[in-house]
Design brief:
Number of helices: 1
Strand order of the largest sheet: 29-28-26-34-33-32-31-30
Structural class: mainly beta
Helix content: under 10%
Number of domains: 2
CATH architecture of the largest domain: 5 Propeller
Number of strands: 34
CATH class of the largest domain: Mainly Beta
Distance between the termini: 25 Å
Length: 468
């Protein structure tokens, strides 16, 4: 990929220092959001109408499989497929099913569209898991279909697991992951009964033990209607941990992504503060590291209710893939991809900007100085969060808050922010955010910039974007 090279010249003893060259991503294709001319022409659907996207890489292509959705009309049922060479430019492929909803799923649920698919490959066969449900109930069905071609068509193989009104669990939102022995598991579930993970047969793709509901790994208090869904599990081999991503709250207004980790695929999964993701006694907003939520930088239009994510490990790089709703018209769901970094103590950190080819690299301390938009991902406020302006001064102070605030720079791209809270606080007088800086593309202002993403000693995430 071509890149825009910005060379910062530092004059000293009559010489130019090229060590602080920053490799910024180039300008991505221009967006035209809320384009009603595309509504009835699926060939023009790129990132629009992509809801609950699941990511899968195959033979040099990145694929997303997603819920049947359509702004301004009735969606065609069949599981939408898109693909990309670079995770930036997306093109429409078509539908996994050529004849709409499989008969058994339709009969059980009377659904009019298919939800939240996930895909894996066993040998030479692609296994597509899909779900159908009667909205607002747990009359639900997870089915399996297979194909010899990732782009389909897929042949239905029937039910994997189903639930009905009155059952404790809910058979929606399947995600297939593998343990360190290479054995497949399926995480699934939602508001009704929480999230479970169950063993699969590594050959048939069905439940290893028929009737097994699996192990509970995430659940929320009924005071928030038990609102947890969209499980996605990955394993980080360097950290030797499994990570469970889930989405909290309402998909139309205050959706946000939380994460916990475990030594075992079937849990227990705990957050930064040691709370289990299945904890229903703690305050419901306290549980889980919030790593993604609605946001707005400065006066630019922001995004609402990002969530229902999948995660891709692509060689040494990690990406989080999700949908989000445009602030100006929340009826429109868009596919978004963001680079995911890792904190020093092994927690995922999400970029505040959408992916445009950026890479971690050495950053000079001098380029950190300047005006930034800072945004704290408050666990207790999950509507759209507005950024605040701060200035990192060359003397190490932070201007824009308390006069005792300061910053330090270490390693190649590590920025530590110290925000004074009060004396004699349980965890010290400062909120200490350890962040990583990466060159990025400022999608709101159409220019290259720097961003940071990090976490503090309470497990609260922070984002920043340089604006000058």
């Amino acid at each position: 990929m071509l890149s825009l090279f910005i060379i910062i010249y530092l004059v000293g003893c009559g010489k130019k220092d090229y060590s602080s060259a920053i490799n910024f991503p180039k300008a991505p294709p221009k967006e035209n959001l809320y384009d009603v001319s595309k509504i009835n022409d699926e060939k023009l659907w790129t990132t629009n109408n992509a809801h609950d996207p699941s990511i899968f890489k195959d033979k040099g292509w990145y694929y997303t499989f997603s819920t049947d959705a359509k702004v301004g009309g009735v969606p065609t049922p069949g599981v939408q497929i898109r693909k990309s060479r670079d995770l930036i430019k997306w093109e429409w492929v078509g539908y996994a099913f050529q004849n709409g909803i499989p008969k058994d799923a339709e009969k059980w649920t009377e659904a009019t569209n298919l939800w939240a698919p996930d895909i894996t490959k066993i040998g030479d066969i692609y296994y597509l898991y899909y779900c159908a449900s009667t909205f607002g109930t747990n009359q639900s069905f997870i089915g399996l279909a297979t194909s010899k071609n990732v782009e389909g068509p897929y042949i239905d193989k029937g039910c994997v697991i189903k639930t009905q009104s009155g059952d404790e669990n809910n058979a929606i939102d399947p995600n297939i992951s593998y343990d360190t022995d290479g054995k497949p598991w399926m995480a699934y579930g939602s508001f009704f009964g929480g999230i479970h993970v169950v063993k699969l047969n590594g050959t048939s793709g069905e439940l290893l033990n028929r009737g097994d509901q699996g192990t509970l790994i995430a659940k929320r208090n009924e005071s928030v209607a038990g609102s947890v869904e969209a499980p996605y599990i990955i394993y980080n081999p360097e950290l030797k941990k499994y990570y469970l991503f889930v989405s909290y709250n309402s998909l139309s207004s205050d959706y946000n992504v939380r994460v916990g980790r475990s030594d075992k695929i079937d849990g227990p999964y705990v957050d930064y503060n040691g709370l289990e993701m299945s904890d229903t006694t703690s305050l419901p907003m306290d549980v889980g590291n919030k790593i993604l939520g609605g946001y707005k930088f400065g006066n630019s239009a922001g995004w609402i209710a990002p969530g229902h994510n999948s995660v891709l490990k692509d060689d040494e790089n990690y990406f989080i893939v999700h949908h989000a709703r445009g602030e100006e018209d929340t009826n429109w769901p868009y596919l978004q991809v963001r680079k995911m970094l890792w904190s020093q103590d092994g927690w995922p950190l999400v970029s505040p900007e959408r992916y445009d080819g950026e890479k971690e690299q050495k950053i000079s301390k001098k380029v950190v100085v300047g005006q930034w938009e800072n945004l704290v991902l408050d666990k207790n406020f999950n509507e759209q969060i507005q950024s605040a302006s701060i200035k990192l001064l060359s003397n190490g102070k932070i201007e824009g808050g308390n006069s005792k605030d300061y910053w330090k720079f270490s390693d190649d791209n590590t920025l530590v922010l110290y925000f004074y809270q009060q004396e004699n606080s349980p965890k010290g007088d400062y909120l200490i955010y350890k962040t990583k800086i990466i060159p990025s593309w400022d999608w709101e202002n159409s220019k290259a910039t720097l961003v940071y993403t990090g976490i503090n000693q309470n497990g609260v995430s922070i984002w920043g974007k340089k604006i000058n």
